[in-house]
Amino acid sequence: MAKEIREWIVAILIALAVVILVRMFLFTTYSVDGLSMDPTLEDGDRVIVNKFIYDISDIDRDDVIVFDSHQDASYVKRVIGVPGDTVEMKDRVVYVNGEALSEDYVVHQGETYLDNFTLETLGVEGDTIPEGQYLVLGDNRPVSRDSRDFGLISESDIIGEVQLRFWPFNEIAIDF
Fold first, then answer.
1. Element containing residue 16 per DSSP (H, E)
2. pLDDT tens digit string along 47-96?
3. Which of 31, 74, 77, 144 is catalytic?
C-alpha cells in the first residue's frame, strides 16, 4: 500500500512539474477584460497565448498579441505597425506605408474615439517605427486604449500571440 501511494505522489508531482513548465515557457491562458477587441474577442472570452512563437518567428502585422502594460493588467491588441513601417490614420482609415489597410475586423466606426494620428503625434522620432517597437490598436477603436494612448510598445513587453479562443465553447476559434 505504501509503495502504491508513493507511486501516485511521484506521478502527481511529475504532472504538476510538466504543467508548471508548460505554463512558464510555452503557453498560458488569459481572460479578455473589456470591449476593446470586440467583435474579434469579447469581454469574458478565454484565450490561449503562445509564449514561445516569437522565439522562432517574427512578429507580423495583424497578429493579435498580449503584452504587459506596466500600468495595470496585460492588454490584448492587434499589431498594426512593425519596425520600418510608416503608419497614420486619416478619416478613420489606417494607412501603413502609404496604403490603406483593409480592416474587416473593425466594425465600430460610428462612435467618437477614432482619432487621426501620425507617428509624430504618437511621440515617435523619425518617419518610421524603430527597431524593437510596435504600434498596436484595438479592433473596437472608439473604446480601445492602445498606441494612441500610450505610444509604441516594446518587443520585450510582448508576452505572446493569441492562438486559440477556447471559451465560450460555442465560439472556439483559431483565426483572428
1. helix 2-25
2. 999 988 888 889 999 999 999 987 778 899 999 999 999 999 988 889 99
3. 77
In the residue annotation, 69 being an active-site residue is answered as: no
d(CA 145, CA 89): 16
| Type and span of the H or E element at 29 | strand 27-31
Nearest to 53 by CA among 164, 135, 133: 164
Cβ neighbour number for residue 128 with a 10 Å cutoff: 16
- Alpha helices, DSSP H only, in 26-121? 53-56
Domain residue spans of the chain:
2-171
Q: Can you tell me which residue has the cell 518567428?
A: 57
Q: Which fold has domain 2-171?
A: Umud Fragment, subunit A (2.10.109)
Is 156 annotated as catalytic?
A: no
